[in-house]
């Protein structure tokens, strides 16, 4: 746990010392039923400190950091509030800009405010590189700096593209952080997760980059519960010399989201990523897959499936029979016309 930007003016000694240093009145109160001193709610010095919270950090550790920074009067005060409020479990990792000299309840509210997380870059599972890069600009990194990072970031041996190597997670960087170390931390996390998934110890013929390509296809094509089956379909089609014919590869080329339907004309696009026209795996990942997809890429479930189709939301079916697949396709088209695939948002 690190705390940045802590001014010596806010080392809490006695209440009177704080009043003199900050020129505002902080009235000490007690948390009801406890002996934990707390500042009165509604007070604020108008000054902030940066509190870094690590993924999985305990409430007691957060409480100690808040107290040490002068945010709350005592660690016990925040801990009592956190224990009594289940929202405390949703405090996101990252660098939080928090007011000094506030009550524990206010501290929790500010920790839950995503607007107070500095340099926030949130990568969702399956995000494209083209969707991630603009977040670096929002995190106050310059266009030139980001371009340099894309060129200079160190990729694991054998990987040729940056797509797929920015591991999905919520990242937070201090103001002034350069793009290269920020991006490198994402790549390093991806390599760690690939090692954990077994990319480098598998006895299959696939290289680590090919496993990552498979993981990206799995991520784009189905729900988590179907990942292992999709992984097997990919293998079965490759073994039989069949084109993968994954809609997601065409959507990647066209940079279109939110559309289930893929026109016949779209399947004719001339691209190495178009698995309707090209055999084998695409030349690189089509997104940045999460941990579940990475694991499924190395651990398929046994089955003879060659076809799968999402007939309705959360209803994906697998078969080795083309006739059965075509029947399900008719059902899918009916559901599509009926609006079952429309977003509820």
- Overall radius of gyration: 25 Å
Main beta sheet: 3 strands, antiparallel
Number of strands: 9
What form results from the Cα inertia axes? elongated
Mean pLDDT over the residues: 88
Helicity range:
25-40%
DSSP helix count?
12
Structural class: alpha+beta
Low-confidence stretches: 1-31
The succession of helices and strands, N to C, reads: EHEEEHHEHEHHEHHHHHEEH
Report the end-to-end length measured between terminal Cα atoms.
Answer: 38 Å
Description:
- This protein is α+β, with helices and mostly antiparallel strands.
- The chain has helices at residues 15-22, 59-68, 75-84, 104-111, 129-138, 143-152, 179-197, 208-221, 227-240, 247-254, 291-298, 322-337; strands at 3-4, 28-30, 37-39, 48-53, 94-99, 120-122, 170-172, 307-312, 315-319.
- The chain has 3 domains: 3-116, no CATH class; 120-197, no CATH class; 208-337, no CATH class.
- The protein is 39% helix and 11% strand.
- It has a 3-stranded antiparallel β-sheet, with helices on one face. It has a two-stranded antiparallel sheet with strand order 2-3.
- The chain starts with a strand and ends in an 8-residue tail after the last helix.
- The record marks 221 as: Important for catalytic activity.
- It catalyses: a peptidoglycan chain = a peptidoglycan chain with N-acetyl-1,6-anhydromuramyl-[peptide] at the reducing end + a peptidoglycan chain with N-acetylglucosamine at the non-reducing end.
- This is Endolytic murein transglycosylase.
- Belongs to the transglycosylase MltG family.
């Amino acid at each position: 746990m690190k705390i940045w930007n802590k001014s010596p003016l806010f080392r809490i000694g006695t209440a009177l010392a704080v009043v003199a240093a900050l020129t505002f009145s902080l009235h000490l109160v007690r948390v009801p039923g406890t002996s934990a001193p707390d500042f009165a709610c509604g007070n604020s010095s108008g000054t902030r400190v940066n509190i870094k919270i690590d993924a999985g950090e305990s409430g007691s550790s957060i409480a100690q950091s808040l107290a040490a920074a002068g945010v709350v009067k005592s660690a016990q005060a925040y801990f009592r509030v956190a224990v009594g409020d289940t929202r405390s479990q949703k405090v996101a990792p990252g660098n939080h800009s928090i007011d000094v000299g506030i009550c524990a309840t206010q501290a929790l509210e500010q920790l839950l405010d995503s607007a107070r997380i500095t340099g926030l870059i949130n990568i969702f599972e399956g995000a494209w590189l083209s969707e991630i890069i603009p977040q670096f600009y929002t995190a106050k990194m310059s266009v030139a700096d980001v371009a340099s990072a894309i060129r200079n970031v160190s990729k694991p041996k054998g990987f040729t593209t940056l797509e797929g190597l920015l591991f999905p997670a919520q990242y937070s960087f201090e103001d002034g952080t350069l793009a290269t170390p920020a991006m490198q931390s994402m790549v390093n996390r991806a390599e760690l997760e690939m090692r954990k998934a077994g990319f480098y110890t598998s006895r299959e013929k696939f290289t680590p980059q090919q496993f990552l390509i498979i993981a990206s296809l799995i991520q784009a094509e189905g729900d988590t519960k179907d990942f292992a089956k999709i992984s097997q379909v990919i293998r079965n089609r490759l073994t039989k010399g069949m084109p993968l014919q994954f809609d997601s590869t065409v959507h990647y080329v066209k940079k279109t989201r939110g559309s289930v339907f893929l026109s016949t004309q779209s399947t004719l696009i001339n691209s190495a990523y178009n698995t309707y026209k090209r055999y084998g795996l695409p030349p690189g990942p089509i997104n940045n897959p999460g941990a579940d997809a990475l694991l499924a890429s190395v651990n398929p479930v046994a089955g003879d499936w060659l076809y799968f189709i999402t007939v309705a939301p959360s209803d994906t079916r697998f078969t080795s029979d083309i006739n059965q697949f075509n029947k399900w396709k008719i059902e899918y088209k009916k559901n599509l016309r009926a609006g079952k695939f429309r977003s509820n948002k």
